[in-house]
Design goal:
The chain is α/β, with parallel strands linked by helices and about 240 residues long. Helices cover about 35% and strands about 30% of the residues. The strands form 4 sheets. It has a 5-stranded parallel β-sheet, with helices on both faces. A 5-stranded antiparallel β-sheet has the order 10-9-8-12-11. A 3-stranded antiparallel β-sheet has the order 13-14-15, with no helix packed on it. Helix 1 links the parallel strand 1 and strand 2. The chain is elongated.
């Protein structure tokens, strides 16, 4: 399933773009889920609960409540790494748009030239090569985080503390559930209470691991030998050892 958000204030243009996307979905069988919005405010309200579910944003630059570029900046600041494609009537803001790391900037006069179709296919290709997502529940809502963005997990009683590039959060969970949900070829249990992402290890000693964010994680005595071997294998597979 590919989740796409389209933000376009002009009804006629929005209907035309929806029709194009529905035809694109049928042609390429991408199983698209499309959500449409007339204003930036509507989209931001939706993203408060669904940010990590969205794979592609299609944004008009000229919106009634804020520019599409300002909207894209807010989306990035919220932590989304989804692909952004601007569809607009003017090239005037193309360089300003670069700050939001868009995949493409398409003018509406070239809408049917194949540029949007090519951009969407590229966005889907990039989405399919992203790291898998880890999902956890908190207060009845699903939360999503790319596994590449996770530094570590700590179990403290019934509470799991997740440390990521976006900050620290906590939820109810068990160590066994983590080990079943995570790709353990890149995650490593080094202590009865800690799992770390090997991608972020910068120092490995007999008693302590240091992560890229500066956090130090203790290594349990009974875990050291297996942890050292697993980390060496991880480095060898990536040609770093």
């Amino acid at each position: 399933m590919i989740e796409i958000c389209l933000c376009e204030d002009n009804q006629r243009t929005r209907e035309r773009e929806v029709e194009f996307l529905e035809d694109f979905d049928k042609k390429h069988n991408v199983m698209m889920q499309l959500s449409t919005f007339k204003t930036a405010e509507e989209l931001l309200f939706f993203l408060a609960d669904h940010l990590k579910e969205v794979d592609i944003f299609l944004l008009d630059v000229y919106l009634p409540d804020m520019s599409g570029i300002e909207l894209a900046k807010k989306i990035r600041n919220m932590g989304s790494d989804a692909q952004i494609i601007f569809i607009t009537s003017s090239k005037d803001h193309v360089f300003e748009a670069f700050d939001t790391m868009p995949l493409h900037y398409i003018t509406k006069d070239t809408f049917y030239s194949g540029k949007l179709e090519d951009a969407l296919l590229k966005a889907i290709e990039l989405r399919n090569t992203r790291s898998p997502q880890f999902t956890y529940k908190k207060r009845g809502s699903d939360h999503f985080v790319d596994t590449n963005d996770i530094y570590s997990f700590e179990i403290n009683g019934r509470v799991t503390i997740i440390d990521t590039t976006h900050g620290v959060d906590d939820f109810y969970g068990k160590m066994q559930d983590l080990e079943e949900a995570l790709p353990m070829d890149s995650f490593l249990r080094v202590h009865r209470s800690f799992i770390v992402n090997m991608k972020h290890i910068i120092r490995f000693s007999p008693t302590m691991i240091t992560l890229r964010n500066g956090k130090e994680i203790p290594i349990g005595k009974s875990y050291y030998a297996n942890s050292r071997g697993a980390f060496t294998d991880y480095l060898n597979k990536r040609g770093k050892a």
